[in-house]
């Protein structure tokens, strides 16, 4: 090994303790973060972020449809109106995010229900509804 | 001679009369198919299922169409407090559309058998209380009295609070969580979402805290790969269904096909 390359290696070694210290600090900070986030005050579910309107509306309708199906499983009939799902199956009835209008709900109690969006074109659909658990979006 | 000819003529006329009557009123209209006795069928199904399936109450509902009153449009069976495996589900409802029931088997052999149906639907509702009871019974069965697990529904998550002795945890799971084991217990919290496929239940963990440490995503994933599927929904004989959806709702865990 020549004298110049030995000096370069020594020069690099000069930074090694600093690098090790930095790695230790990063690891310690990460461990501290995990510890700090692990207190009982953090015993709560992650906050759900709102999806893009097109996905959000489908997701809201699917949740509603699930609640209607659960109501049926308990009562052997579909609810007359969506409000009957509160509070047993759902916390609150979501509204159509684009228009702030409530979803259109129709049911004949015994064997058919339908949840529709009043203005599907707002989300780029010609039709958007859930009938007896099956979603139609086109 | 003339007398016997007269008798023959009368007999012939009588036969003609009979044929004539037969042509005007075809036989089926005489023996019109009896109306489907839905109440009788409902009762028979209820009694038969009651023998096979452990539950508090069974409601059977048969609906016929107005156009074809002798054809079953839907058959719905609802069970209350039904034992699904070791868990007492609050409600379980099964619906068959256009079912063909083996009535002979039902009435003679007291066996419920659906020969065919156009589609079926199943819904199982399980409350927090039912899950808590199930966990307590399991802990008792395993003689692990110190196991403390409670569940809360926060749609779309099921929250789980636990305090479990290390000795009650399978070695494979313990190996993954080794860094977080302090003392004799694993205490913490998990928020999970669930999925189902062909009756197998899997958890998708969104957050987990063990012994005051937030578990990083990679460790959570490794843990789930070991645990999933964490349970199977038993199919109650003689019903047929496949659970493919799990929905966490305000008061219930809703399993459906």
N- to C-terminal separation of chain B? Answer: 82 Å
Q: How does the helix and strand content of chain B classify structurally?
A: alpha+beta
- What is the chain-wise order of helices and strands of chain A? HHHEEEE
- Helix share bin of chain B: 25-40%
Low-confidence stretches of chain B: 25-34
Secondary structure tally, helices of chain A = 3
Number of helices of chain B: 7
Quaternary arrangement of the chains shown?
heterodimer
In what range is the share of β-strand residues of chain A?
A: 5-15%
Please give the number of β-strands of chain A. 4
Number of strands of chain B: 14
Lateral arrangement of strands in the main beta sheet of chain B: 1-2-3-6-14-13
Q: Can you describe this structure?
A:
The complex is a heterodimer of chains A (138) and B (257). By secondary structure, chain A is of the alpha+beta class. Helices cover 40% and strands 12% of the residues of chain A. The relative contact order of chain A is 0.11. The model of chain A has no long low-confidence stretch (mean pLDDT 85). Chain B has helices at 2-24, 27-30, 38-52, 103-109, 128-141, 171-176, 217-227, and strands at residues 57-64, 72-84, 87-97, 100-101, 114-116, 119-127, 148-154, 157-165, 185-197, 200-210, 213-214, 231-232, 245-248, 252-256. A 6-stranded antiparallel β-sheet of chain B has the order 1-2-3-6-14-13, covered by helices on one side. In chain B, strands 7, 8, 9, 10, 11 and 12 form a 6-stranded antiparallel β-sheet that branches. A two-stranded antiparallel sheet of chain B has the order 4-5. Chain B contains 7 helices and 14 strands. Chain B folds into 3 domains: 1-32; 38-117, no CATH class; 129-237 and 242-252, no CATH class. Helix content of chain B is 31%, strand content 39%. The chains are: A alpha+beta (138), B alpha+beta (257). The interface between A and B is large, with 30 and 42 residues.
């Amino acid at each position: 090994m020549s004298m110049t390359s030995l000096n370069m290696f020594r020069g690099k070694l000069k930074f090694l303790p600093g690098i090790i210290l930095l790695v230790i600090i990063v690891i310690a900070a990460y461990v501290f973060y995990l510890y700090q986030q692990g207190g009982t005050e953090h015993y709560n579910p992650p906050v759900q972020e709102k999806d893009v309107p097109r996905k959000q509306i489908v997701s809201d309708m699917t949740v509603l449809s699930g609640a209607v199906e659960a109501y049926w499983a308990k009562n052997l009939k579909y609810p007359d109106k969506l409000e009957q799902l509160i509070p047993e199956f759902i916390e609150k009835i979501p509204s159509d995010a684009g228009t702030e209008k409530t979803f259109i709900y129709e049911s004949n109690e015994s064997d058919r229900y339908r949840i529709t969006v009043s203005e599907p074109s707002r989300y780029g659909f010609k039709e958007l509804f859930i009938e007896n658990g099956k979603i139609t979006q086109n | 001679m003339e007398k016997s000819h007269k008798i023959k003529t009368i007999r012939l006329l009588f036969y003609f009369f009979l044929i004539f009557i037969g042509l005007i009123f075809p036989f089926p209209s005489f023996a019109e198919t009896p109306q489907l006795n839905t109440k009788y069928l409902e009762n028979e199904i209820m009694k038969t299922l009651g023998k096979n399936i452990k539950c508090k109450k069974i409601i059977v509902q048969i609906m016929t169409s107005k156009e074809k009153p002798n054809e079953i449009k839907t058959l719905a069976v609802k069970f209350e407090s039904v034992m699904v495996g070791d868990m007492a589900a609050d409600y379980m409802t099964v619906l068959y559309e256009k079912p063909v029931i083996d009535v002979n088997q039902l009435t003679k052999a007291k066996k419920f058998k659906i020969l065919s149906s156009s589609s079926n639907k199943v819904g199982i509702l399980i409350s927090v209380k039912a899950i808590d009871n199930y966990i307590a019974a399991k802990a008792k069965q395993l003689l692990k009295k110190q196991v403390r697990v409670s569940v809360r529904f926060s749609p779309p998550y099921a929250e789980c609070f636990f305090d479990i002795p290390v000795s009650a945890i399978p070695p494979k799971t313990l190996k993954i969580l080794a860094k977080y084991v302090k003392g004799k217990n694993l205490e913490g919290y998990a928020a999970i979402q669930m999925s189902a496929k062909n009756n197998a239940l899997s958890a998708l963990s969104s957050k987990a805290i063990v012994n005051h440490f937030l578990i990083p995503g990679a460790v959570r994933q490794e843990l789930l790969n070991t645990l999933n599927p964490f349970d199977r929904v038993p199919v109650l004989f003689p019903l047929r269904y496949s659970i493919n959806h799990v929905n966490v709702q305000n008061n219930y865990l809703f399993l459906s096909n």
